[in-house]
Input
Amino acid sequence: MNLSKRARLLQSLTREEWQRDDWHWQMSHRLTSLQDLRVLWPEWRPSPEQEAVAQRYPFAVTPYYLSLMQNPSALDPIGRMGIPQASELQDAPVLFRDPLAEETHSPVPGLVHRYPDRVVLLLNGLCPVYCRHCTRKRFVGIDVAAASRQQIEQWVEYLRATPAVKDVILSGGDPLTLSDARLEEVLSAVSAVESVEIVRIGTRIPVLMPMRVTTKLCEMLSKHHPVWVVTHFNHPAEVTPIATRACQRLLQAGCPVNNQAVLLRGVNDHPDILEDLLRHLMRIRVRPYYLHQCDLIQGIEHLRTPISRGIEIMEALRGRLGGLAIPQYVVDLPQGGGKVPILPNYILSMSPTQTILRNFEGRIVAYPEPTYIPDSYERPRRPRGGLSDQLANLNPEPLIPK
Ligand code: SF4
Output
């Protein structure tokens, strides 16, 4: 077996030792060849199709994340997120290279301006692990270079010229793969723009390489508040003691930590798994923020779930967990259409007098509307009642006039 030097070293270490608390070591010992996975699973062989996938969409995994996998098959939820699968080559025609049309919404290279008050800065294309479901598969792991000083200056110029932008999201790749010094340069430059009110860091580091969250990094972040962190746990097995420590450090440094999970077939598309994940997150004080429906990205068809499944899961979670633990389920529309929240339908009928609602147990309850309509609403009262009025005999006229 032709193993790389790194793989041979890992072979000589225990799984616990793969979690070494040194992010530079983790980065430099990432496995980037599928053959190297035979370190862990000597019986396993990547198929030629998997090798072809890894040529198209790069493969890399930290020893730490590898230690969370039981096996590299598509049946293991962690393996499914980290190991190329042959199905990544089967693209349905509805999938896009750049589903959110980020490139068309980039007035300056690397700056995505889709909503009036927010921009995303793409700091690099480097990540500790290349997640198979990544929205930016088009460039992560391929164009890994960090933004140049000149590019950062262009971004700052754009921000100064666009005071409507209040919220700057640092993303990539993973911005926390940059050195503290480089990251601080970006943070200082961006926060010096008077109209910028908050900075968010979008990072999967607490999940893929949590040892990167050092006390030194947190001290630096705490000098640039308000800094929010948005991370990306998808499965309860990812909430390890060291991942917990990373989140605690960020919280202690004053960075609120929110989680954006992605609904992935075979990973977390079951209410029990998501409930478990959300409970874990609440215990470590990470707020469940979004549950994303998979974007329409080329190479991820096998990971997509129907929206109807997402609605079923949200419906099941509603009775089991308190509202604080329930993320908002959203679809990010293709071609830059923006995020749309999706809820199970709890409103059965509305009329001027009452709204009929269904609760999580399926009980149907009427909510009587106020007897007056405040003038300020300027809402024309509908002349005919809705279904609820019909049922309550309040307005027996037919809904559809003869
Ligand atoms: S860490 Fe984020 S940007 Fe990097 S591959 Fe994973 S999902 Fe994509």
